[in-house]
Design a protein that fits this description.
Blueprint: H1 16-28, H2 33-54, H3 64-79, H4 84-102, H5 111-115, H6 131-143, H7 147-159, H8 163-168, H9 171-181, E1 183-185, E2 201-203, H10 207-219, H11 232-246, H12 256-271, H13 276-279, H14 286-300, H15 309-312
Antiparallel strand pairs: 1-2
Length: 316
């Protein structure tokens, strides 16, 4: 096979999935059908992620940053219940296929650094517990001309949304749902497309309504907060860059921490007690604690309530 860098997928074919399989066959030759099949299936998942999350359809466009982002996405899946061993295998197969296609190991990553076995119980309170501080940071972003980024961060904190969910939320529709139901059904940007199959109503009142009003103003005539002239990948990068430029001034960290802060708030509302990660122990009785975790899991869009420990701390 021709590995010339000037040809799509290093000369292995026009489709990334097919090209990866051909590169594996070229590397292993005959008699290693199981090995090729295993790597190919895991490569298929990476190809789908590249297409959906990075808008990449040519392996020549894959660099170390892309593979690292994939590792981070697998880390999130480990937090959500995926086996660390399986996540490491997924990342290892990406290394193997890209090495076979490129003929070098320049963009190889160490799987254990991203998806090693870790504790899934949060032990430190998340930044952003004080919504007033998040609002102050958002106001600074607005003064800097980043109204959409500010609205995205505020909505993420007020409703416990992932970055993609907050970005793709139609705030005008959401306000209509709040008026009718007192809650918003999260359907866009959900992991695994769950929002299109499972209702996920998040209660909204008080300050959260104000966040939605500001988000509706920011999105203007658009359907969500992603500018029409940007791809998702471009918007994703812009949000992280802009947020990182100001968050430290307000003692805040990554946007995902705002989701954990929401979970801690909801736990207090549901149980009348501080979240275990805030109080350094569980105060609520076991049955109340269990019921709150089930509710929070549903609102965060998780299939299992034990994942909530990564946001609010353990139940012991």
């Amino acid at each position: 096979m021709n590995k010339a860098g000037g040809h799509r997928n290093f000369g292995y074919g026009k489709q990334m999935e097919w090209a990866g399989k051909q590169a594996l066959r070229d590397r292993y030759g005959n008699g290693h059908y199981g090995t090729v099949a295993g790597h190919s299936e895991r490569w298929r998942r990476f190809v789908a992620w590249c297409r959906d999350e990075q808008e990449i359809c040519d392996s020549r466009l894959i660099n170390s940053e892309v593979v690292q982002d994939y590792g981070k996405s697998l880390s999130d899946k480990v937090d959500a219940g995926m086996s660390p061993a399986y996540a490491q295998n997924l990342l290892s197969s990406v290394n193997v296929v890209l090495e076979a296609m490129r003929g070098d190991r320049q963009i190889r990553v160490a799987p254990v650094e991203f998806v090693g076995r870790r504790s899934r119980v949060r032990t430190n309170p998340p930044a952003g517990l004080d919504q007033k501080v998040v609002h102050q940071c958002a106001e600074q972003l607005r003064q800097n001309g980043h109204e959409r980024v500010a609205a995205t961060a505020e909505v993420a904190r007020a409703m416990g949304l992932r970055l993609k969910e907050a970005s793709l939320l139609n705030a005008r529709v959401a306000l209509g749902q709040v008026k009718k139901h007192g809650a918003v059904n999260i359907t866009a940007g959900t992991k695994g497309g769950r929002g299109h199959r499972v209702d996920r109503w998040v209660p909204v009142s008080g300050a959260a309504i104000g966040c939605l009003v500001r988000a509706a103003n920011a999105q203007g005539k658009g359907r969500n907060l992603v500018p029409s002239n940007l791809t998702w990948k471009q918007w994703y990068s812009r949000v992280h860059h802009v947020w990182a430029s100001v968050r430290g001034d307000y003692g805040l960290k990554k946007i995902h921490d705002l989701r954990a802060a929401y979970a801690c708030d909801r736990y207090q509302q549901l149980t009348g007690s501080a979240a275990p990660v805030v109080a350094s122990r569980r105060i609520a009785d076991r049955s109340t604690d269990r019921a709150a975790r089930l509710t929070i899991a549903q609102e965060l869009g998780h299939a299992r309530d034990d994942v909530v420990a990564t946001y609010i701390g353990g139940a012991r």
